[in-house]
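User: Here's a protein and a ligand (magnesium ion). What would the complex look like?
Assistant: Let me lay out the input and then the predicted complex.
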Amino acid sequence: MSLLGIILLQVSWLKNNVILREDQVRQKIDNVSNILRDELTQYKMQFLPPANDALGIIPPLRMANELSKRNTIHARLNQTELNDRIQKALNRVGLSDLKYEFALLAKTPGPFDQVEKQSFNFEKASQDTVSNYRPPMAAIIANNGSSFESPPDEFLYIIALDYKKIVMKSLTGSIMLAILFTLVIIAAFFVTVYTMLRQKKLGEIKNDFINNMTHEFKTPIATISLAVDALKNEKVLSDKTKMSYFSGIIKEENQRMNKQVEAILKASQFEKQEVELDKEPLHVHEVIQLIADKFLLQLQEKSGKAELNLHASNDLIKADDVHFTNLVNNLVDNAVKYSKDNVPILLKISSQNAPGKLVLRFEDNGIGMSKETQKRVFEKFYRAHTGNLHNVKGFGLGLNYVKSVTQSHSGTIKVESTLGKGSTFILEFPLDMSGEE
Ligand SMILES: Nc1ncnc2c1ncn2[C@@H]1O[C@H](COP(=O)(O)OP(=O)(O)OP(=O)(O)O)[C@@H](O)[C@H]1O
Ligand SMILES: [Mg+2]
């Protein structure tokens, strides 16, 4: 709203400026007309024809007539001279660029004045009254020899051509400035709106994260508290197996919390790029095999299975053992977590060689993701908000971490997915050539 106001203000200010300038220019043109009138009148009066011997003979009335005929501006200035005078007058008021047409007319007793001189396009120019301006005519006082003021008998018309162009020209600077300011204001406006939206999104994400985290921690804390209560019980205190059972629970829950805290810490460390990677030649197939074995139990529980198609002939990359294992772990963990309830999990992990590269595919038959989710899965704290996902726990850090690790190993990661069908994560890493014999 205020942006619109500012723009409107600018426009109206410019418009006023144009009107003002136009007035100024018109006034100047009027001035020119006045200057010319004064000049030419003076010029006409100055001139006295040389004394004529026949003066006495010619009847006074005729003489006056003769004199006035010879003493017209028309008779005394040719076209170019008149033009020069007009140009000079224009220069004097600072309108030297102005184009113009002019006409010199003589007064006659009849309804039409007689045209004495006329510039080439005068007729045409006089028809366009919109872009051209015609100041009041300059009347040139007749000098017919009499001492008293006589009525004017010659008129000079000037038509200023396209005078608005001159106005515009003198205003281009301010117009440009106005446009520039407006652009800056618009840009600032959009940056502000963009930042605001981003902030809002970040706020939502943070909120989600905090909700998630409290939820995640509440369960182990409650469990530990219950276990401690049970330990205080006399009956349990005397029973060794029960003692170790409850302390086992406490230990387990404690480890779970510890893992969660570590995951958060890890993510923020990667963010700040504080992590030092210890890159060594690593056989990727071994890591994948290890993780697959680890998940075997979980998979069997859901009557699912993992299919390994590790066909790459070269699986050696330079990688940090710990972080790379975490990476694979996260991907497999997601595939198990985001599986469909009633369908046995089928996780396919395959490897392939491309020139200079190792390509890994993690394909699942889980719930899949929408296009929007696919775009955002690698964002920190992002979790899809759909349906039964709420009972699956997580912080939305896993894939963000996976991406960070991939990038710090000069790799790339992308996701392909169909909602309801499954997802495939495709990773590419440069092969380690230095270790090859
Ligand atoms: N294999 C998958 N199939 C379907 N959706 C997935 C899959 N992997 C990830 N997602 C979606 O992407 C979101 C982000 O995943 P990510 O691993 O980053 O976080 P998380 O699993 O929710 O939590 P965390 O891994 O930090 O415990 C998930 O919440 C889920 O909506
Ligand atoms: Mg995850």
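Summary: Residues 330, 333-334, 394, 398 surround magnesium ion (ligand 2) (CB under 6 Å).
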